[in-house]
Specification:
single chain; 7 helices; rod-shaped
């Protein structure tokens, strides 16, 4: 009998799934740079709100801030300095110019007196007595006539009345009212006003002179 040859069967080797090799080897890549590990996120409470941040001064902590230069005056005349006593010195300077103006007026130096009285009024515009001296000095310069003169005399009389409302012992106000009355022939009014002026201000030679004139005129009647 013939012998039957059995075919040789090659069994496929079973390789575990994790150990199977790829038929295509991976391409070679350059080594990647080392990446630092990622920092963990800060807690949400650690972030500062904008309202809690300190003001931005531009100066590092602990450093000395640069002083700010003072504001300069126009024309490069140095720093502008505020004077806290300027409001108090105004009336004081006004009194100085006022006294100079009165002294010059009584000496008959009307032009120079007007300069000082201008300064006094500029520094203390609410001084009624100073305004009265100023108005009377402008009248003595003799630059007015006609309606302007009459209007100025009315203004002066009003100022004198206001000055007496503030201080009844204002001798110059009595003197002015007496002189105006003497100009317009009201001799009795002039006599009373100038007599009062002399009693309050004995150094006013013009008041003495006007009083003597008013006294003579009053006796003639």
């Amino acid at each position: 009998t013939a012998v039957r040859v059995q075919p040789v069967v090659r069994r496929k080797k079973i390789v575990p799934k994790g150990q199977r090799s790829s038929p295509h080897p991976p391409a070679s890549h350059p080594p990647e740079a080392s990446i630092p590990p990622r920092l963990s996120d800060a807690p949400r409470d650690s972030f500062s709100n904008e309202a809690n941040l300190p003001p931005r001064t531009g100066v590092p902590p602990g450093a000395t801030p640069i002083p700010v230069a003072p504001t300069s005056q126009p024309g490069g005349r140095g720093p502008l300095r505020t004077d806290p006593d300027a409001g108090h010195r105004g009336p004081q300077l006004a009194k100085i110019h006022f006294k100079k103006g009165k002294r010059l007026l009584f000496r008959g130096q009307n032009d120079r007196a007007l300069v000082e009285l201008d300064k006094a009024i500029e520094l203390d515009p609410d001084n009624i007595e100073c305004a009265l001296f100023h108005a009377w000095t402008t009248l003595q310069l003799g630059n007015l006539g006609g309606p302007e003169l009459a209007q100025r005399e009315q203004q002066i009389e009003l100022l004198a009345t206001r000055a007496l409302g503030v201080d009844k012992g204002c001798g110059f106000a009595h003197y002015v009212l007496g002189q105006l009355a003497l100009r317009h022939g009201r001799n009795e009014d002039a006599y009373r006003a100038l007599k009062r002026a002399v009693s309050l201000d004995g150094d006013n030679e013009d008041a003495r002179r006007g009083f003597r004139i008013a006294e003579r005129r009053a006796k003639k009647k």
